[in-house]
Design goal:
The complex is a heterodimer.
Chain A: H1 2-12, E1 16-22, H2 28-41, E2 45-49, H3 60-71, H4 76-89, E3 94-97, H5 100-106, H6 108-118, E4 122-124, H7 134-142, E5 146-148, E6 150-151, H8 157-166, E7 171-174, H9 188-200, E8 205-208, H10 214-220, E9 226-229, H11 231-240, H12 245-252
Parallel strand pairs in A: 1-2, 1-9, 2-3, 3-4, 4-5, 6-7, 7-8, 8-9
Helix pairs in contact in A: 2-12, 4-6, 5-6, 6-7, 8-9
Chain B: E1 6-7, E2 10-11, H1 20-34, H2 37-49, E3 57-59, H3 61-67, E4 71-76, H4 86-100, E5 104-109, H5 113-125, E6 128-134, H6 135-140, H7 142-150, E7 154-158, H8 165-179, E8 183-185, H9 196-219, E9 225-229, H10 234-241, E10 249-257, E11 274-279, E12 282-287, H11 311-318, E13 322-328, H12 329-343, H13 349-361, E14 370-375, H14 383-390, H15 393-407
Parallel strand pairs in B: 4-14, 5-6, 5-8, 6-7, 9-10, 9-14, 10-13
Antiparallel strand pairs in B: 1-2, 3-4, 11-12
Helix pairs in contact in B: 2-4, 4-5, 4-9, 5-7, 9-10, 12-13
The chains are: A alpha/beta, B alpha/beta.
């Protein structure tokens, strides 16, 4: 189970690190090298984003990575094969992150079955609120997959409790309103919000949106269980190449 | 949100968690406005004093004679302020924004029609205004950009994706998730997450209400068929609303572009290139590939050049209540030319799609039948696009001469 893995990991580490990549960006070969470097650098779990042409919750950096991957011909089938490969080669848990249309078009049951078959542990689907997610949640349940729901600063405590009751493994807290990749101020407001998240659930909390360096990780230590780095590694790859990933991750641990 | 806004299997609200509270607030504001009789009165007063409501219903005798069949009437949404039915929705949402106490509006625009209408509303109500417009559209619709900027709006060219309408919608959502406290997103058509489809068609229903009353007044009976072009679907839903419970055949006409078999069209409801999917916050027919990636679309009319379609129309198709057809770019130019020449009416390229289908069918109907076409917008202000569509050499020469003068 995802939750027990995280709890076990947390016995030895103050804070876990989850990273995010867009599959097929810059290429599937590069995606593989990035995963390898990240796992070797000590990443605890990873989100693999299946590219979509309309990623409405993503900011410009991840948006462009989605488009580039698609322009280079990335297909859902390749993403599933890629997932199967990395899940068998590396021992950390991998999650899919994608938009609902990818799953819906593939067939919800077939997609869940393929996820389970490839060894993927769960999925983050930012445009699938629980109210729309019945079919998907049931399919994931059948295949013992963890749906990861999201808290935002505008989520009421009552709604947090509902979301937490449906989430398995951990809750993904977005640090602020807006899209991925913009500046987040690690402030008192954020601490208050995290306290509210904590009071809504006993599940581990992950915090993403704007986490970019060691200082942010230090700030989050003791406040959440998992720090999520997404956009920052894509920026790094664009500026310094795939080779820079290993050192960057090692520097965070 | 209690009501998820489903029409048969279509619609819903597939929204990121961060917008959840904003949609609750919007739904509540719309509900309370709708239940307040004063709100609709205020809306009607605004539309009759600031825009041109009720818009006339025009009998087009020359076309009727020329085609030799049914008597043809045209609902004149082109006579709205800013030149299209878009004003109905925009002014209505503007009143709603006032009720919500927000100070900033954002909108997407394709052809620029909805952008100009929103910028106009913002100027009138004193709101800050940002318009997202695909870079491709900014290039082909400069006159509309010019007016939006004069009206005080900031126009942001969208360089992501295919750089057209759908990308502008994504970008507007990105703005909204960042600024939802102060900002309302004035979605331009009956698409997107609930409550937008319901809300937009509510404001547009004024078109059909008037048209029904007017045809009864002028002819003492209902039309056999009503034609409207379908991009997102708001003008079609507006006019259809008036005849939904009558035995009137409703016909929606999509952009057939270069032909349904060319791959270059925007037909979601008549073409096998479309299938049911979820994007931009709602479930409907989208032009997409087998992986669920959205396809590129094409139409001579930028306002119809969109991958999705109103979930309400998708449901009406499933129920068999509305028939859908497609008109090609070429047919559209011919119908437009004929209408201008015979009646002195200048429909927008979008609206001309509805004329194409009506012209095909009117001769086959009896002279006692009536057909009604919704002229959703006027074409004369899109002179650059229409002159290009006609390939007018003297216009081209004029532009080149003008260019020379600017260069000097």
């Amino acid at each position: 189970m995802l939750e027990s893995y995280l709890r076990e990991r947390l016995q030895n580490r103050d804070i876990l690190l989850m990273t995010h990549i867009v599959l097929g960006y810059p290429s599937f070969e590069d995606s593989y090298q990035i995963v390898k470097a990240m796992v070797e650098g000590g990443v605890d779990l990873m989100e693999l984003q299946i590219p979509f042409s309309e990623p409405m919750a993503d900011g410009p950096v991840i948006l462009r990575a989605n488009q580039e991957a698609l322009a280079r011909g990335a297909k859902v089938r390749q993403c599933l094969e890629f997932a199967e490969q990395v899940c068998s080669e590396f021992s950390i848990p991998f999650l899919f992150m994608t938009y609902y249309n990818i799953i819906y078009k593939h067939g919800v049951e077939a997609f869940a079955q393929n996820m389970a078959h490839s060894g993927i542990r769960g999925a983050i689907i930012p445009d699938l609120p629980p109210e729309e997610g019945k079919e998907c949640l049931e399919a994931m349940e059948r295949h013992r997959l963890a749906p990861i729901f999201i808290f935002s600063p505008s989520t009421s405590l009552e709604r947090m409790r509902t979301l937490a009751s449906l989430t398995k493994g951990f809750v993904y807290c977005v640090a602020r309103t807006g899209v991925t990749g913009a500046q987040t101020s690690f402030s008192q407001d954020l601490q208050d919000y995290l306290k509210r998240c904590r009071s809504a659930t006993s599940l581990p909390l992950a915090l993403g949106f704007g986490v970019k360096d060691r200082a942010d990780m230090d700030f989050l230590t003791g406040k959440v269980d998992i720090a999520v780095i997404g956009t920052q590694t894509i920026r790094l790859i664009e500026e310094k190449g795939v080779e820079a990933v290993g050192d960057f991750i090692a520097g965070l641990r | 949100m209690h009501d998820r806004g489903y029409y048969e299997a279509f619609g819903g609200a597939f929204i990121p968690e961060v917008l959840s509270a904003t949609f609750d607030e919007l739904e509540e504001a719309f509900r309370s406005a709708r239940n307040d009789p004063r709100f609709w009165k205020e809306y009607e007063t605004l539309m009759s004093t600031y825009s041109c409501r009720p818009t006339p219903l025009t009998f087009v005798g020359n076309l009727t004679e020329h085609l030799g069949g049914a008597r043809i009437y045209v609902k004149r949404e082109d006579l709205n302020h800013t030149g299209a039915h878009k004003a109905n929705n925009v002014m209505g949402q503007g009143l709603l924004v006032k009720r919500m106490g927000k100070k900033r509006v954002i909108a997407e625009t394709g052809a620029g029609q909805h952008g100009v209408a929103t910028a106009t509303m913002a100027a009138r109500f004193g709101f800050d205004c940002t318009i997202y417009m695909g870079e491709v559209d900014v290039e082909r619709q400069r006159p509309n950009v010019f007016w939006m900027e004069r009206l005080g709006a900031q126009v942001i060219p969208v360089r992501e994706g295919t750089r057209i309408l759908k990308d502008a919608i994504n970008e507007a959502f990105r703005d909204w998730v960042t600024h939802m406290e102060t900002t309302h997103y004035v979605l331009g058509t009956a698409c997107g997450p609930h409550p937008f489809p319901e809300m937009v068609s509510y404001f547009q229903s004024i078109v059909g209400e008037e048209a029904r009353e007017q045809i009864l007044e002028q002819e003492g009976r209902l039309p056999a068929r009503v034609y409207a072009c379908v991009g997102g679907g708001s003008n079609a839903l507006g006019i259809f609303h008036g005849f939904m419970n009558d035995g009137v055949e409703l016909v929606g006409v999509e952009a057939g572009g270069k032909g349904l078999r060319s791959g270059l069209h925007a037909s979601r409801l008549c073409s096998p290139d479309a299938s049911i999917g979820v994007a931009q916050g709602y479930k409907t027919y989208f032009l997409q590939d087998s992986d669920g990636q959205m396809r590129e679309t094409h139409s001579v009319a930028a306002g119809l050049d969109y991958v999705g379609v109103s979930p309400i129309l998708a449901a009406l198709k499933h129920r068999g209540r509305v028939r859908f057809e497609a008109a090609t770019d070429e047919e559209v130019i011919q119908a437009l030319a004929l209408t201008v020449r015979k009646e002195g009416l200048i429909p927008a390229l979008e609206s001309a799609h509805a004329f194409v289908q009506a012209f095909k069918e009117a001769p086959l109907l009896s002279k006692n039948d009536i057909v009604l076409i919704n002229q959703s917008g006027r074409g004369d202000k899109d002179i650059f696009t229409i002159a290009d569509a006609f390939g007018d050499p003297e216009w081209q020469q004029f532009i080149m001469d003008k260019g020379e003068k600017y260069r000097a």
